[in-house]
């Protein structure tokens, strides 16, 4: 992946950016790939397809299992979920292939961390919360956060771009508040200044005594986002961000932008 998400020629000609759509079911352009994936789970040297069909029928409580091309979207997802759950007969190569199909295709489903089934890629409540933050933040932070979301969850995911834009979103609200006079300010500057000025800042959240909490835990959240970014090419630790890192960075940034925008972090009176 590059820093700039690829955009289909037809969308570029129309002046459009990456398609941010995440499909809840099976988008039509992924249907054939998922059908082929199910067919590839029938290796001739290990399983007889009729035996495999019988196993799936029992598991799914179905009278019969039609060929993948005749299944509804929900039925096809059920079959894929069952194949993953009972290793009948999915191997690591097939798991990796399915992950690539679902991620690159902007599907609303992904493989669980245990590789034992499917789960929703984005919870509706979480989506609504991030959307609210995008609309309530100032224009600069909103633009960065929206771009980060598209880079993480769009049809052409770019986790490097998602992570970078997430950091920029937090910098857009954190730098003017914490270090407004520093012309070379970054999120790292915000973290350093807050650590050096803990007596000058507080949170609207209360501590165990009911008094405004200190900023240390917020600083830890900021540092988690900042330290996890692979920023400098050529260094020994340079690497590409993973898809999971890109998605996590977007959600962490959304929380931080909302907190800073709404005044959770404030100077002591």
Topology of this protein?
Layout lengths: L8 H5 L14 H12 L9 H12 L12 H13 L6 H13 L4 E3 L6 E3 L3 H13 L2 H15 L5 H20 L8 H10 L4 E3 L12 H12 L15 H19 L3 E3 L2
Antiparallel strand pairs: 1-2, 3-4
Q: Helical region count? A: 11
Alpha-carbon Rg, integer:
23 Å
Distance between the termini: 47 Å
- Strand-pairing-aware structural class: mainly alpha
Domain module tally:
2
Strand content: under 5%
Mean pLDDT: 83
Helical proportion, percent range: 40-55%
Could you list some keywords that capture this structure?
mainly alpha; two-stranded antiparallel sheet; elongated; 2 domains; 269 residues; 54% helix
Model description:
The protein is mainly α. 54% of the residues lie in helices and 4% in strands. Strand 1 and strand 2 (118-120) form a beta hairpin. It has two domains: 28-120; 124-267. It has helices spanning 9-13, 28-39, 49-60, 73-85, 92-104, 124-136, 139-153, 159-178, 187-196, 216-227, 243-261, and strands at residues 109-111, 118-120, 201-203, 265-267.
